[in-house]
Amino acid sequence: VDLARRMLREGLAGWVVKHRRPVLVTDVESDPRWLQTPGLKPDFQAGAVVCVPLLLPHRVVGVLTCAHPRIEHFDGDDLRMLQFVADQAAVALENSRLFAAEEQRRELVSTLSEIARVVTATLDLDEVLNLILEQLGRVIAYDSASVFLLRGRRLDIRAWRGFENVETVQRISFELGSEHIMARVMAGREPLVCADVQQEKGWENVPGIPLIHGWIGAPLVARGEVVGALTVDSHKAGAYTEADAWVVAAFADHAAIAVANARLWQRAQRRLEEIAFLYETSQALTASLELDDVLRSLMTSVREHFQVEAASVVLVDEETGDLVFRVAAGAAADQVVGMRLKPGQGVAGWVAKSGQPALVSAARSDKRWYRGVDEATGFQTQALMVVPIKLGQETIGVIEAINPRDGHFEEEDLRLLMNVATLAASAIQNARHFTRARDAEQRYASLFENSADPIVITDTSGTITDINRKMCEMLGYGKKELLNREIASLYRSPEATRQQLAQALEGKSVFYNVEAVARDGTRLPFEVRATRVFHGASPYIQWVCHDLRERLELERVRRTLTHMIIHDLRNPLSSIVSSLDLIRTAWKDKTITIPVDQLFAIAERSGKKLYLLIDSILDLARLEDGRAKLARKPVDVGDMVEEVVEQVRPMATARELGLESHVPARLPSLWGDRNLLQRALLNLLDNAMKFTLPGGKIRVEVNQPDAKTLLFAVSDTGPGIPPEYHERIFDRFTRLDREETQGTGLGLALCRLAVEAHGGRIWVESEPGHGSTFKFVLPVGEEGVE
User: Would the pTM of this model clear 0.85, i.e. be above it?
Assistant: First the structure.
């Protein structure tokens, strides 16, 4: 090859090509243009030479040389004959070249047609790119070839042929600086051919890959956008021509179309997948109205679709404004749930505060990142995306997706997660509304069921649709027995209830009194308030019944008490008035002799009795209201008991009752109000004498069960007290239904309040027919201790 180049440059053949004329050399020794060609035939030595050009109309395609060892062997005829032969050979060579070119063109067209067919027939990018490289090898000889795709400012290898070290090749990725040879190819948007790429500025060798010399690079341009490059490599320098470069460019155009089609298809597929994902997520979020179920479904969808190591939902605490990790999935999920972030803290806090999404490819280098969660859980956050959950302009929480398995998030991922957050916001709001409505309904149901008043709900026709426990208990029916009955059937005057129903349906609040009839025939007086209420859009009538039995009983007691007080006041007043009338009569008529001292004594006793009754009523009121001021001082228990016993002894004697007392000597003194304690003891004795028949016995006894208390007991041999009255008899105005005894019902109530005011306790022990024993204990107390 080198000798041929020299001959064309310096030798006889070069002269013939340059001058486009034949030449006859009769003696080569005398012509310096002749260059000996040793090695072609060792025993041959040229003497004469004829050299003619292979001429075409516009160019020389070759040289035909004939040599003979004898000098002057060739003459002019030989020259003309050889030129004729050369002319024919030139035509034949040109025809052969044209035929070969046509074959090559047909091969190229066929190959490109096949590639075009495959490009339009399949959307599998890897399949198309590998086919392009394979078909390219049919028309351009190469040692290796590659297709690179652009990703940001990097060029990643996507398909290749001719490389042996697969693990090394598949990691090839170039950072495209302005001087990089690939950047020049794509910036110029035209193919570039290099005779020896090792001499080119911006070339980058890949360790483990054989050195490349001959090289062609062609840009992949789709719809006006550069998306990558196609390269052809040779281990030999000068392997490729400009013509080869344009062939490679044609293949690059098809590769670009394949990339564009595949990306469009991938984009469409991704969009379909996104729509399907959003639909499935929407279905999952609306499958339950329980907030925890909604959030767990959300986490499952996010983690599975985005293929992340961890995900969480962080909600804003409505009271504090803190961010609370409500649910989490993936690594460290159990540790994360319940953690709190201050407003604005971390990427999540920034998103919640700003209302803007965040895509972080390197968490530790982001100034917004908060390392506290990772330090507490041992988790390692690398990349994350966080989007706000917004209701209108209010951010109620955020969704986090952390550490994708492929190492990075795309902007499309962020956009999709924003759509998920929109669905989540509606689902969370619905769940919260449901929770509040359910809680309100439960509170209403609890208030309805546990109301102290009987309540009935009816429809507009008066049919019972609900009834609370209190009403069922009072009527003696089970709930199922009363449902679907007409409410008017529960009362003695059904027509009046129907009339009230008509007014309530007009929106009026109706009040009326009515008697219900229980299962056992008991009449239950009610004050009823009927009002129209709505459940959803349907009207109902709510009947709130107030039990009037206690009010009527109080009214009866009030009338009885009034009668008793009038009676008890009237007797001593009558005695006082009668005594005064007699004294006045005697004063006017000096002839009438009357026992004035006895009349004054009667008036005095009656006045004291009247004073005691009034004082009892007033003391009872003060003790109940806590307004009573106790005149505490040391009280000699024995002296107090003796004084009370002697005070009632005349009455006991008059009623033929035995009265005795037992008070041990050396009892400690009480620290209390002697007058109040004395009246309480007096009331117990008075009560005992009322209910003890002539011949019976009454006993007062005091003991000291321990160092801190004294036990008082008043016993009688009366008829006893039924067990159901053991507690009630200490209430005001409570009296046993016994016609032979009368009273205001205030005495025992005063006893209870007086004992309790001193920190004591009172009770009765009795069985019907076996008398009664009233006992109370008082703390000994110390001077100055209230």
Answer: no
